[in-house]
Amino acid sequence: MSSRGLLSRLATGARQNDTVSSVVDHLRDMLNTPQGESITVPDYGLVDFADVCHNMPEAIGSIQQSIRATILKYEPRLRNVSVRFVPSDDQLSVRFEVVARLADSRRSVVRLRTAMNTGGHMTVE
What we know:
By secondary structure, this protein is of the alpha+beta class. The chain is built from three helices and four strands; from the N terminus they run αααββββ.
């Protein structure tokens, strides 16, 4: 195995790590932006959780679909996005798992955990 091949793989891995970090940062911002807050792109962000939280647990499907649709529309670096509700003992948050592939890679899978608290703030890890 040549050192050039190893250096190439290391550089590719570093670029993928940078891409994943950038995607996570963007998702954190995007998922904490209520729809209608952006003047130029009114549907950017998620549905207003104040409108759906009174319908819990039935609203979980709406939140899940909003997360997926927003990612598909506004994060082109991800494809094959799935969002799954993750049951939790914590009554004050709603958790989801987001799994997707990096658009520029066949093998790179991104798996993120999200949690929405009662104030509507979404954490992304």
